């Protein structure tokens, strides 16, 4: 049977030229073959392939042969050959605004000395302990650090807010008095105010404590007066508030840690929490707020930029969202340059071997490299290659500016 290119069904004859015949002869067999895959399933435009299959040609789905690995067992080795720039130390000294060192790091003077050696190995000059503690625990921690000749200027503490009893007479006065005492003792900020605030913390009457509750107004006013930045962690990634199905890109993490799920019949929605948070920030324009984890908007830099534009009293800390920064290198580069005065370096969990991933993303132009935790990100990262002037601000200048820690001895 001969093929006549002028007789293609549904195509007007006047639009078909015989000069296209060699191309059509190559393309059409592939199209026909796509319709005849072994055990293949045809779908309609806009439909998803059935479970266990994947789209191999437009609207044609096929199941793989053999045993299919689970998501945790599939670990392909990249064949890409590109330059790799390993950064064990940051290019400039760093303030970790979101530090959670524990007893092995700050439990004794001897531990502090060892901690200093670790920090030197990655070029973290100052660690802010964001433990949300106050009173005796805070003063004991500060006193211990001050006993170390080498570490007393390298570890600073944020004070905390005890929400217990809020809603009872005199709560705000007591909270403000404690804040003033902690500032006098040496605290340089407030926080990390944990994610329970807004999600699960209750008032004295048993109702949920909303982030923008007016009874908190005296506390935020005192923070402004005392020049203490408020470091606040609101909610968790938006995917934690969605059904845990196979379209959820945080499926593995929530399957490993089911306590990170926030079903809507038990918790406020992500958007409700964001609305309360933004209301809090706008209602207290004299208070400096730092949104932990870039407000969980690193996956939506347009939204984060809008927040910065509308709320000049707000900064963002980048701990534990490197997986979003590194998968959009061009957009992230431009964002960091534009908002270079509003972003703080932070790591969150203290694991010294993980810091170099941050240096590599922020300082290099490297392509397609692994993130340090597979369950956070199954995709690869890229370097965003920030200019030195931006790195200095993100690494230390912005943090020193808002905490009032002296800049003596830091690079210009």
Order of helices and strands: HEEEEHHEHEHEHHEHHEHEHHEHH
Portion in strands: 5-15%
CATH class of the largest domain: Alpha Beta
CA-based gyration radius: 27 Å
Which percent bin holds the helix content? 25-40%
Describe what you observe in this structure.
This protein has 412 residues and is an alpha/beta fold. It folds into two domains: 21-62, no CATH class; 94-403, Alpha-Beta Barrel (TIM Barrel), CATH 3.20.20.140. It is 34% helix and 10% strand. The protein has 14 helices and eleven strands. The strands form three sheets. The protein has a five-stranded parallel β-sheet with strand order 7-8-9-10-11. Helix 10 links the parallel strand 9 (289-291) and strand 10 (314-317). Helix 5 packs parallel to helix 7 (217-225). The radius of gyration is 27 Å and the shape is globular. The termini are far apart. Mean pLDDT is 91; it is low at 1-36.
In short:
This protein has helices spanning 21-34, 103-106, 109-122, 136-146, 171-185, 196-199, 217-225, 251-256, 270-283, 301-310, 322-325, 329-338, 355-363, 388-403; strands at residues 41-42, 54-57, 60-62, 94-99, 124-129, 155-157, 190-193, 230-232, 289-291, 314-317, 343-344. The chain has 412 residues and is of the alpha/beta class. The protein has two domains: 21-62, no CATH class; 94-403, TIM Barrel, CATH 3.20.20.
